[in-house]
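Extended Data, panel c. Modelled sequence:
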Amino acid sequence: MRSNMFDYMDIFIQVVEKGSFSQAADFLQLHRPAVSKAIQQLEAELGVKLIHRTTRKLNVTAEGEEFYQRAKQMMGEFGDMMANFSPTLPPQGRLRIDIPLSLAHSLFIPALGDFTALYPDIEVVLLSSDKRTDLIASGVDCVVRLGELHDSGFIARRLGEIDLVTCAAPAYIAQHGMPQSLEDLHQHQAINFFSDHSREIMTWTFTVEGKIVTHRSDSVILVDNSDILLSCGLAGLGIIQATRMALAAHLVSGALVEILPQYPPQAKPISILYPDRRYLPSKVQAFISWFSERFASQ
């Protein structure tokens, strides 16, 4: 492709949209002969007629209409791409983020309005689940992860830790009693969470005299979704262990009651992962900085 083809396409788009060579020339601040010559060069390069010109009227051919649609899309994508890497322009474009459900509900969505107000030219595409996301295969720009990381080939920025809590609904406690010790948990029903990636059941942890103790209770229900885990807990089906941030409102309302507070679970690390790129788009940089500050302020 000739180096000036982008200029020709831009001129052609303006001619079609303005419906006139003269108006397009005025808009682009070009002489009318330069606009005519650009269209002629474009038609010669493509080998098709794009516009029929008469002294009174301008008609776009079928080939011209198809070329206009594709050129318009290409120029738009090219503009977005250049803007993403321009240090002089505000961050803009489509930003694809993957966040675990519990964090999306409790941390990200409540603050999302602040982010969109700061960066109105960024279109957020929020992908939220508890499944392990492949950054490259899914085409996301960055991922927020809970727990220890085992990925290779990605840059990880650790933000801190999130507290967990062990709890159950008052209806469950009324029926089965309140556990007083870790040994008592063996007599209770657990709602356990398993990873869809490894199929491994998540082990509960407790801090006892400064040391981390693990515990595995038999599952009455096994789930792979944090929303379902919470729903089961609220329904009084068993004891759950999850992030305190996600359960905070239910603990305050009394819909859930903390169990064994003297043995707090081990906190989970939270990190942001993004592909190892030499030049990170400004929209991704903006999100990472904003989300890091948001988490630090919690």
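The mean pLDDT is 86. This feature is highlighted in the accompanying rendering.
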